Amino acid sequence: MKNNSRIRTVLRWSFRFILVLLLIVIVAFLVVFRGALYNRFFLFPQQQAAWEAIRADRYAVELPYSIPWKHYRGSAHNHSELSHDSVVPFERILEVLQETDRDFIAMSDHCLPGGIADFGAQWRGLYSGKLFIPGYEMSRGFMPWRLDSDVVLDCSKESEALAQEIESLGGLLFIAHPEEDRDWHLPQIRGMEIYNIHADTKDEDLKALAPDILLNFRRYPEQTIRLIFDRNTEMLAHWDTMNVSRKMVGIAANDCHQNIGVYGVYTEDGNLMLHESSGKNAQEYKLNFLTRLLLRLFTGKLVPGEEAFRFQLDPYNLMIRFVSTYALASELTEEAILDAFAAGRVYIGFDMIADSKGFVFMARNKDHQAVMGENIMLTPDTWLIVASPHRCRVTILRHGEKVHQSEGVIVDWQPTVPGKYRVEAELNILGEWTPWVYTNPIEVMRDITTITP
User: Fold this and answer.
1) Residues 105 and 20 grouped into a single domain
2) Residue 421: partners with Cβ closer than 8 Å, 6 or more residues away
3) Per DSSP, what are the bridge partners of residue 275?
4) CA–centroid distance for 423 within its chain
5) Which of 15, 100, 178, 215 is most buried (most C-beta within 10 Å)?
């Protein structure tokens, strides 16, 4: 009887211990994942529904004016298997462009072995109707395009000499990662990134994001990745300041690498080869009957030589959809798209939320009209006109300072002083105005002799 009593006592206390331990684990889980749980069951479903409602409420952009440009949607600053930190082949990039309805992609691979930028190494031209534009991301943030296929640049060359060489060869020089120290005094610099996804992640606490990544990324990938977004007020202010005294075209940078993740390949001898998606490291794990069975339960049928699973935080197609760079051009060619880049006939749209294709910002009077990147004479009948495919809040800024704000799909406003005017458009998502479109400026000028045709 005493033995039975001891056994019951041990079982009773064991049960209590397990119950307390389980309670501690549950409480710890709720504390650590409380924000992610709120997002999964409340915020993200509401955001998803709000985005879908905005997408469904799309207007045809119709203006009684003829604008001689087509809107081409693309992606700038992207990497391929030629970069040291990406393994994505051009064939896969083409598939992504087709899947995401992008017209062009401007590449910015890292310098090749030997410290060179070889403009004949990348895809160039139209592939299945998608335009590939060669380019590289070099030291000091140099990001040159519009160079012939026989051009090979020395990535170690001093920045002033390199900028002069790019210009002499007819190249178009933009700056990547302007949040870092850059040689802004160089007159060859024609444009810069005013938003970069990679730069936007630099101020994030990855530990704080981990619960959402673990709990919500598979179910709500778009809402989860949007957690990194911050209003880039400091960079926009820097851009506005430079545009007062010179022309500095703004574009968005997707900075696609697809290098944050892991994937497993089931080997011919029945083991698991675990790879980093950056291509840097691989390690083989021996599988026994039990671990092989568990792997099959979680991933399905195992085929030798094929991927068993992949966990990718930055898949190319997701990062491409995050933000778009639109070029107003006459045709889908490298020359026409980069002419639009050079002129500033460009706007960026955070199309993961809603498609911004067709957004218009223009100026008009009885004698002339101009779109973003162009200029127009200030007269008593000069108007700035905004037309949007979605209802939004439109803010017109002069040299970075707000001069007008109103809501709608059509907004017009009369400037009274010369200056460089640009537009920011925001969408109302669950009561919060969220950045959606940034345009390049139109210059409103007094002197008719300086007006471009």
Assistant:
1) no
2) 363, 384, 396, 397, 398, 403, 415, 441, 442, 443, 444
3) 263, 282
4) 19
5) 178
